[in-house]
C-alpha cells in the first residue's frame, strides 16, 4: 500500500492532518519574557528568536538589526587579495578581461556584479555564458580555447559561480598561457582543486573566512568590493564606487535568494539591504524586469524575487541562451531592456507549459516504476525528449510531492544529462560521489547537483542512488513534517505583533517563515471554497473572544469534512496583506486537525 505523500488524509480518530507535527518544545515562558525585555520585543517574538538559536542579546540583536558594517572584510575571502591584484593589473594594462558565468540566476547576477565594477574602473571587459544545452554547465575546454584566441592579446578570464571542479579546462588555460581566476561556492572535487592563477572560494581548504555559505553572486560582490578598494587605493571608496556597490547589493540579493543558500549571516545582510535598494535601483534592466513583472510600485520581498523575478531570469537560460539575461543586467539600453524583459516573460510562460507536461509524465513514471513505495526512498527517472533546462525544476516538484531526493535526466545520443534535488539531511553531492565511477561528470552542493553519464549506466546508477539514500533516509522521514515554532492565540496575531514578527524576514533556507499553532479554534460558519477550481479552503474562526479568518491554499477538498461548530488546531503562517493602502492580518493554513479530546 502506498504511503500518502503531500495529500490530506483522515485518520481513524477523524484528524485532518497532512503532515507530522514537530514542535520545538517548551522553551520556557520566563526565558521568552526575559529575552523580550532585553530586546524590547514581545515574548512571542523572543520565542521565535530562541527557536532559531538566538538566545542572547549578543546574537539576537545583529539578527534583528543587521548592519552593512557587520559584513566581513572582503580581503579575508580566500584568494580575493591575489585575484583582485591581478584584475587591477589587467585594468591598468588594458588587458581584455572575460567574465565567464553560469546560466542560472546566481551566475547571471554574479556576472553583472563584476562587469559593472570593472566597467566603472575602466576595464576592457566582456562576458561569456555557455549555452545550457549545447555546451553544458561550467568552464569548458572548447570555450577556453576559443576565448584564448579571440583577442589581440591573451585575455584574463574570471569565472563566476563555476569552475571549482573544472580541472581539465583549468589545465587548458594554463597550457595556452591564459591566466584564469576561478570564483565559486560549489562543493570541490574529490580529485583536488583546479590549477589556475587563483581560486576564490569561501570554503577553500585552510580557509578561516567567518562565513562559508555565500552564493556565487555573494562571492562576486565581495571580490568586486576588494577590486574597487585596490583600484582606488583606499578602503574609503569614492562616491561613484560606493553608490555602485550599494546598488549591486540588489543583484547580489537576487542571486542569494534564487540559489537557496542559508539566509543567515552575511547572506541575511546582503538580502535585506539588497531588497531595500531594488525599488531605487539605477540599473535599467532591473527596472525593466520590475515593470514587465507587474511589480511597479510594490514592496519587493524575497517571495517576489524567488517566485516572480528569479524564474524569469532563469527561464532565459533554461529555454534559450542566458546571454540575453546578462545583457539585460549589464549594458542594455532602455529599449533593449524592455524588449528583453518581455522575452523573459514569454520564455517563463513557455517554461511553465513545458514543466507541466514533464511533471505529468514524471509522476506517471514514478507510479509505474513503484518509486513512491517506502522501500524506494529516492527517485531516479530518465527519458528521451525531456527538456534539459527544465529537469531541475520538475525534480524540485517531485521532491515536494514525494519527500525524497529526486534525479531527473534527459537522454540524448547515448548520454544522460540531468539534475538532482534533495531533502534536508541528504547531501546529494556526497551521494553522487559514492557512485562517481558511473558518471562522466558531476558537480553541485548538498541540496542540488548536476550530472552526466552514459545512458548504458542508468540502471546501475539508479540502483546505487536508491541503495545509498535508503541507508540515510528512514521510512518515517518520508512523511512531510511541519515544524511548529510556537503556540499562540488568535488574539496574539494583531497587525502590531505581525510587524514585530516581520523583523525576522526575509525568510528562506535556515530562516523559514514562522509556523504558529492556534489550538482549539471553533469554526463558526460552514467552510467555503474559492479559487478557479475551488481548490482553496476558507474558514471563519472564533478563539476565546477573538474572531478571524484563515485560508488554506490547495486545501479546498477538506471543506466537506469540516462543519460549523468543529474545534480545530491550526498551524498557520501569519502575514500582513496590503491592498489599496489598507493592511490586514492574513492567516495561511499550513495544516489542521480536529482538536484532540482529553
Beta-strand proportion: 15-25%
Largest sheet: 7 strands, mixed
Percent helix, as a range, is: 25-40%
Number of strands: 19
Describe this structure in words.
The chain has helices spanning 29-39, 43-51, 57-64, 80-93, 105-120, 141-148, 167-175, 216-232, 239-258, 265-278, 284-292, 302-319, 323-329, 334-369, 391-402, 428-433, 458-472, 495-501; strands at 20-23, 97-100, 125-128, 156-160, 180-183, 198-200, 379-384, 406-412, 415-421, 441-444, 448-454, 481-484, 486-488, 516-523, 528-530, 536-543, 546-552, 567-579, 582-594. It is an alpha/beta fold. It folds into 4 domains: 1-21 and 482-598, OB fold (Dihydrolipoamide Acetyltransferase, E2P), CATH 2.40.50; 28-64; 72-346, inorganic pyrophosphatase (n-terminal core) (Alpha-Beta Complex); 370-478, Diaminopimelate Epimerase, Chain A, domain 1, CATH 3.10.310.30. The strands form 4 sheets. Strands 13, 14, 15, 16, 17, 18 and 19 form a 7-stranded mixed beta sheet that branches. A 5-stranded parallel beta sheet has the order 3-2-4-5-6, sandwiched between helices.
